[in-house]
Amino acid sequence: MSNLREVFAMKDRVNEGSAPILIILEKASMLVCLLIVVAIGLALDLPSWGIGLMFGLSLGPIVFGHYYFIYIRPIKRRQQAKVEE
Asked: How far does Cα 27 stand from its chain's mean position?
């Protein structure tokens, strides 16, 4: 499991030469996912503290999931390809 410092180091390595629009779309994707979580809480007619709890508990997995698929997984694949060669 990667710690937070390693995630940001990997993010810097992957982002070299990437377009700023992709970074903006990544953040927008996270916000849309969190908006969906809030909408589900509203649809379930949860109290405000329930929606806040649901939002707070889903914040970490959503952000880490995005970072994993966008930054960590490609680097691990490159490292695995180097080991296999």
From this structure: 8
Q: What is the mean pLDDT of the segment spanning 8-36?
A: 78
Work out the mean pLDDT of the chain and round it to a whole number: 83
Angle, in degrees to the nearest 10, between helices 48-67 and 20-43: 150
- Distance, in Å, from the CA atom of 11 to the CA atom of 47, rounded to the nearest integer, reads 37
Q: What is the pTM of this model?
A: 0.71
For residue 38, which of 29, 50, 26, 27 has the smallest C-alpha distance? 50
Q: Which of 67, 61, 22 is nearest to 76 (CA)?
A: 67
* Mean pLDDT, range 50-76, rounded to an integer: 88
d(Cα 73, Cα 79) in Å, to the nearest integer? 10
